[in-house]
């Protein structure tokens, strides 16, 4: 039923995760011993269950009330998550709710979740009217994009399906790349983060050989996303020279072989305020490419994030990269993002990032059991 909803795959996945109870509410994290506080970060209610978060928390309740979807006292929203979804998916239409209004419900749930994350991770208050507005606009944009796509409008404007995608972005930029060769026991990944012009941070990761080059590309993107969340950075424009990866994400293509990466991606995406990924030519991605190749050639599992280019093999290139001093102060605020909340984690994230001392080499061994890409 969820998969038949007219909504982008990221939102379908989100709703599927809600219904399969794999979204990390505070209550669920506490049950899994990943935290001790079950209470709701938005209203202080003693237990933040998924149903509370999405339907009963006062800002959520207000959002539904403002949404035009008919609320019925005692029936919707109710104390049961499944009853609420049963209402939205089936009973509301039978009760005469207009279909075009009901069509918005996936976006409303998604934006309630995002508003809740904004509160937790950025301490930003998004009010219910804004949530309704975001949901309504995104639904409209998406619907129009579907109509345009079905009419096969020329121009290959593939980024319009997602309102977050932008080509010229004012947000921090991160170039990612992976290195994968047949029969090697290890793959490598690299990223080059520019938080502001001239403020560059390099990351490299050595990982077990992935199933395919595409898996390696996706894994390094997920690794970078997790790192940034841990550092409190929730707006990012990614760049990759892997056209397949960019298309997979922007066009929400269905790649069953990438299902676990995709699930984790959706989870991480929901924690970003702004996310985009665009294609760049290989020549413009040389630094990330070198980092990835260097990481693979180390033949070990490790992760490294620093403002200094890691590994002596790159020192000769350092000057032409205009490297600058560390700006780790930017990252001083460590967010409460808990990597355990990733329900389908595929890579080690719990040991990855501690902001290193400036100009010092920090290499951390990742645990074997955490590196699970199969
Ligand atoms: Zn609440």
UniProtKB/TrEMBL annotation:
<dbReference type="GO" id="GO:0004523">
    <property type="term" value="F:RNA-DNA hybrid ribonuclease activity"/>
</dbReference>
<dbReference type="InterPro" id="IPR036397">
    <property type="entry name" value="RNaseH_sf"/>
</dbReference>
<protein>
    <submittedName>
        <fullName>BnaC05g14790D protein</fullName>
    </submittedName>
</protein>
<dbReference type="InterPro" id="IPR026960">
    <property type="entry name" value="RVT-Znf"/>
</dbReference>
<feature type="domain" description="Reverse transcriptase zinc-binding">
    <location>
        <begin position="1"/>
        <end position="64"/>
    </location>
</feature>
<feature type="compositionally biased region" description="Polar residues">
    <location>
        <begin position="338"/>
        <end position="349"/>
    </location>
</feature>
<dbReference type="InterPro" id="IPR002156">
    <property type="entry name" value="RNaseH_domain"/>
</dbReference>
<dbReference type="InterPro" id="IPR052929">
    <property type="entry name" value="RNase_H-like_EbsB-rel"/>
</dbReference>
<dbReference type="Pfam" id="PF13456">
    <property type="entry name" value="RVT_3"/>
</dbReference>
<dbReference type="Pfam" id="PF13966">
    <property type="entry name" value="zf-RVT"/>
</dbReference>
<feature type="region of interest" description="Disordered">
    <location>
        <begin position="335"/>
        <end position="374"/>
    </location>
</feature>
<dbReference type="InterPro" id="IPR012337">
    <property type="entry name" value="RNaseH-like_sf"/>
</dbReference>
<dbReference type="GO" id="GO:0003676">
    <property type="term" value="F:nucleic acid binding"/>
</dbReference>
<feature type="domain" description="RNase H type-1">
    <location>
        <begin position="176"/>
        <end position="294"/>
    </location>
</feature>
<dbReference type="InterPro" id="IPR044730">
    <property type="entry name" value="RNase_H-like_dom_plant"/>
</dbReference>
């Amino acid at each position: 039923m969820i998969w038949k909803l007219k909504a982008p795959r990221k939102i379908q996945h989100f709703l599927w995760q809600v219904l399969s109870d794999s979204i990390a509410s505070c209550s669920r994290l506490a049950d899994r011993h990943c935290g001790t506080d079950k209470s709701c970060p938005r209203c202080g209610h003693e237990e933040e269950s998924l149903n509370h978060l999405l339907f009963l928390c006062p800002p959520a309740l207000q959002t539904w009330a403002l949404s035009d979807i008919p609320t019925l006292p005692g029936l919707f929203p109710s104390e049961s998550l499944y009853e609420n979804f049963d209402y939205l998916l089936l009973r509301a239409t039978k009760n005469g709710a207009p279909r075009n209004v009901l069509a918005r419900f996936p976006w409303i749930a998604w934006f309630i979740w995002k508003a809740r994350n904004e509160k937790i991770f950025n301490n930003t208050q998004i009010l219910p009217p804004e949530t309704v507005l975001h949901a309504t606009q995104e639904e409209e944009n998406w619907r129009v994009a579907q109509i345009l796509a079905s009419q096969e409008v020329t121009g290959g404007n593939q980024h319009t399906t997602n309102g977050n995608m932008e080509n010229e972005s004012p947000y921090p930029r991160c170039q990612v790349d992976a290195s994968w060769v047949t029969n090697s026991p290890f793959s490598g990944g690299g990223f080059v983060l520019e938080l502001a012009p001239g403020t560059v941070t390099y990351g490299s990761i050595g990982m077990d050989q992935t199933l395919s080059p595409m898996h390696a590309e996706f894994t390094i993107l997920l690794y970078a996303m997790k790192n940034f969340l841990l550092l409190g950075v929730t707006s990012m424009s990614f760049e990759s020279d892997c056209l397949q990866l960019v298309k997979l994400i922007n066009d929400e293509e269905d790649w069953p072989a990438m299902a676990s990466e995709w699930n984790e991606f959706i989870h991480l995406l929901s924690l970003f305020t702004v996310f985009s990924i665009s294609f760049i030519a290989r020549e413009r991605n040389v630094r990330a490419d070198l980092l990835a190749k260097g990481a693979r050639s180390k033949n070990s599992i490790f992760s490294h994030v620093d403002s200094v280019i890691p590994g002596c093999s790159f020192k000769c290139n350092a000057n032409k990269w205009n490297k600058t001093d560390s700006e780790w102060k930017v990252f001083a605020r460590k967010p409460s993002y808990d990597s355990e909340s990733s329900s389908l984690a595929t890579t080690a994230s719990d040991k990855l990032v501690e902001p290193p001392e400036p100009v010092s080499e920090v290499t951390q061994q990742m645990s074997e059991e955490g590196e699970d890409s199969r």
